[in-house]
Specification:
With 829 residues, the protein is α+β, with helices and mostly antiparallel strands. The chain is globular.
């Protein structure tokens, strides 16, 4: 185990030497330049520290001086706790905090601090694979399994080989696997560009043309299909806690005897209390399991629709069957045990119903599903553990309600506002609960507390991205930083990440015990209340406690193989990191892209990264002309390329366009602002002469975004702005920046915007000439059309019969032949 050195003071108290420490805890991975940055100082002494300094590690120069903020040190068994804010430190580099004679570990600030983390956690998912384990390059559990607890088929053999082992044991559960699968699909759809391709479908090294996270998600989907082989026939679990009797062994050498020959038991979903021994669970129905099947299958169908239509069609049919089954028997379906009284005590199912219906509504735009999602979501406005600050083991699962996030993005503004409010309510409870904590998480330290931390961070980030409300940015930062070392123990909670810092090296796992290596990428369970730790059976530490001096507060954590309560990695907890890490990594990439953008002399962005072979199709429209609406949407849909649209407020408000705009939104295109009333900002002949006042400009922008809200579009999520007539000056660009939007325009020299001209104009360009000029620009420029914004109008004057939008299929085909990919402008800003 690797620990950073801190200053240690030795005090003599009544003749006894007592070890007293003062330490500074930071996010060891680092901080994005514009993020909230707060370190925490803990001390066994009462300290009065008027200020702290941040120094450049290379030059030793002081770059920032701050004032510490006191917090409640007694919560963690300390005499002093201070929060040290260093958010203003934004320049990329490596720094250290100095205060009270101690120095922090290195603090990295940069756009790349999260690079590779989203793929890193997939290492653990591959290690957990069952059937064929690529980590061991060996097969395991090839005889799964034999049906148990079925009214007529108990004892029958069924092929359910595959999936993932749940944790450091070899049990497998539908509930955790379906959630893990959904989480990975959700992350990929949100941030596809961050995922690499270094492994094949079987998990072994070697690219196969498919992002690794999709290989992993498909591994889960294919196993779930085996666990749901026919309509209304579902299985919830392979094996049970008899697995634990043999202790540490590799999955390929698992001799556990279930008295079923070489097979393991496969538990049929009965919808009634289950247990083959004296311990019986409290199952009340099938909905929690069936709805998880439905949501995973539905999102899988949409994700693989283009790359594997046959697979997607099968998933789609199974999703609808699972949904009907869920509705037929509302209730929870818990896991089963035999030897010990421990099982997953899932006690809510309405969140699963909400997520399934919301997923269907999102991908199919069916109003009935939206109504169903709203109904189920209203039954549980706040995830219960957030409200109650307590839960039994996996009582309220999944730990984050992604259904709320989907509904908060609904095209129905009332529904969007309602469920964004639900998300906010949960976050408010966490924030208020931890107001005086030096680590203000607001999370109860239950078994698998790190899963709750991840869930809360995911909800906070989604809420901010959806609404633009930054109320909870400090809570979000504290949750993320906790996972990477800004916690009492100063350790990351992800095995091996970062490789230069303190992270779990001795997790509770057979891989560690037998192969003497950590389970790279795995998220460990995390700290538990002392009362929970003391009540659990079978825990004993193998080694002296390196963190003993930090286990004096309300929760304990040990990096020790013997502590299965705080140091066991889990498959679903690890998969739950996918959205969070991919979003952080993508945010860093956007910072990098912003550094490469090209601006004109007025300050508007006119070209994105010229080193990337990506083009950006942009379309604008006001209420006057819109004759090309269907042609544009059809061309983009047929070619399967994204684009960015800019509409005036009056266009957004016109009822005749609502369904078309929703079609664009549902297809994933970027929707932006183009002013409310299509004002002319600057004189045509003297561009320096501004024709609007600052207040007129800001009011017009505000009106534009107010009308966009009816489509669930916010300023934060859609902060790029194309000025009316694509005409502006430096003064109006500054006003737009004050409003919080980034002005963009077509790339100079790309003349597709001349599609508005009519034959009676001196500037008239027919479509053939426009296309020829586009080709000529691409050929004569060193970077071709890399990063170019290509503007086309959605409609033009009837006097122009030669419509350039009709040439879109040909233009897109030519660009693809030239090797260009297509992007949304907002994603590159």
């Amino acid at each position: 185990m690797k620990h950073f050195l801190t200053t240690v003071l030795l005090l003599c108290v009544l003749g006894t030497t007592v070890r007293a420490e003062t330490v500074i805890r930071v996010n060891q991975l680092g901080y994005l330049p514009e993020s909230v940055k707060v370190a925490v100082l803990l001390s066994d002494e009462p300290l009065d520290i008027p200020s702290f300094h941040v120094v450049d590690s290379d030059t030793e120069a002081v770059v920032f001086e701050g004032t510490p903020e006191p917090a409640n040190a007694s919560l963690w068994g300390k005499r002093t706790a201070l929060r040290l804010r260093l958010t203003p430190v934004q320049k990329s580099g490596t720094y250290r905090i100095r205060a009270a004679g101690v120095e922090s570990p290195p603090i990295r600030v940069g756009k790349d601090v999260y690079r590779g983390t989203a793929d890193f956690v997939l290492k653990y998912m591959r290690q957990q694979r069952c059937g064929f384990n690529p980590y061991l390059n060996a097969r395991c559990h090839q005889h799964d399994g034999v049906i148990v607890d079925h009214p007529t088929r108990t004892g029958e053999r069924i092929d359910v080989t595959g999936g993932w082992h749940d944790a450091s044991d070899y049990l497998q559960y539908t509930m955790t696997s379906a959630n893990a699968t959904y989480q990975m699909l959700f992350a990929f759809r949100a941030n596809p560009s961050v995922y690499g391709d270094e492994y094949g479908a079987d998990g072994r090294s070697g690219a196969n043309g498919v992002p690794d996270i999709l290989d992993e998600a498909r591994w889960g989907l294919e196993w779930l299909m085996k666990m749901n082989p026919a309509k209304n026939e579902m299985y919830n679990q392979i094996a049970d806690d008899r697995d634990h009797r043999l202790g540490y062994r590799l999955p390929s050498e698992d001799p556990t005897d279930y008295e079923l020959g070489e097979s393991r038991p496969v538990y049929f979903v009965t919808g009634k209390p289950q247990g083959l021994g004296k311990h019986i669970n409290r199952t009340t129905g099938v909905a929690s399991t069936a709805a998880k099947f439905a949501s995973a299958f539905a999102l899988g169908a949409e994700t693989f629709r283009e790359s594997d239509p046959a697979f997607a069609e099968t998933l789609s049919a199974k999703a609808l069957d699972a949904w009907e089954f869920a509705k037929s028997d509302p209730g929870v379906c818990q896991t089963a045990c035999l030897v010990s009284p421990y099982f997953y005590e899932e006690d809510n199912y309405v969140d699963d119903m909400e997520l399934a219906a919301a997923t269907f509504a999102t991908i199919a735009d069916k109003e009935n599903f939206l109504k169903d999602a709203k109904y189920w979501g209203e039954l549980e406005p706040v995830t219960p553990w957030m409200e109650l600050n307590r839960a039994r083991h996996y009582q309220f699962y999944p730990f984050v309600n992604l259904g709320h996030a989907l509904l908060a993005r609904s095209h129905d503004p009332a529904i969007a506002a309602q469920f964004a409010g639900n998300m906010r309510q949960g976050l408010e409870l966490l924030r208020d609960r931890a107001a005086d904590d030096p680590f203000p998480l607001g999370v109860p330290f239950l078994w698998c507390s790190n899963n709750l931390v991840t869930a809360a961070a995911t909800q906070a980030r989604l809420y901010r991205e959806i609404t633009g409300d930054e109320t909870f940015t400090e809570l979000e930062a504290a949750l993320v930083d906790w996972l990477f070392g800004c916690n009492p123990w100063g350790t990351s909670m992800i095995c091996g990440l970062p490789d230069w810092g303190d992270s779990p090296m001795l997790p509770h796992s057979a891989y560690t015990y037998l192969r003497k290596e950590t389970t790279f990428g795995g998220l460990v369970d995390g700290p538990v209340y002392r009362s929970i730790y003391d009540s659990l059976l079978g825990i004993h530490l193998f080694n002296p406690d390196d963190y003993a001096n930090f286990n004096l507060g309300k929760a304990v954590y040990h990096d020790d193989i013997g502590d299965y309560s705080s140091n066991e990695p889990t498959m679903d907890g690890t998969a739950g990191l996918s959205y969070l890490l991919s979003s952080l990594e993508y945010e860093g990439r956007k910072v990098e892209l912003r550094q490469n953008i090209v601006r004109d002399k007025y300050g508007a962005v006119v070209r994105l990264d010229p080193n990337r072979k990506t083009v950006y199709l942009a379309f604008s429209a006001h209420v006057d002309f819109h004759d090309g609406k269907q042609a544009v949407a059809d061309a983009l849909s047929a070619a399967k390329v994204p684009a960015s649209f800019f509409f005036t407020g009056e266009f957004y408000a016109d009822p005749q366009h609502r369904d078309w705009i929703r079609r664009l939104n549902d297809a994933g295109h970027d929707l932006g602002a183009h002013s409310d009333r299509h004002l002319l900002y600057a004189d045509w002949d003297d561009r320096s002469k501004t024709l609007v006042t600052r207040q007129e400009c800001l009011d017009d922008l505000a009106a534009n975004f107010e009308k966009m809200r009816s489509f669930g579009l916010t300023r934060t999520g859609n902060r790029i702005y194309l000025p009316p007539f694509e005409w502006y000056n430096g003064e109006t660009v500054v006003w737009c920046e004050e409003f919080g939007v980034e002005v963009v325009n077509f790339t100079p020299g790309v003349t597709t915007y001349f599609d508005y001209t009519t034959p009676d104009m001196a500037l008239y360009k027919p479509s053939d000439a426009i296309f020829d000029e586009l080709k000529a620009f691409e050929g004569k420029n060193a970077n071709g059309l890399n990063g170019a914004m290509i503007l086309v109008h959605v409609g033009t004057d009837p006097a122009r019969r030669d419509k350039f939008y009709d040439r879109l299929p040909e233009v897109i085909r030519w660009l693809k032949e030239k090797g260009y990919t297509f992007g949304r402008i907002v994603d590159a800003m």
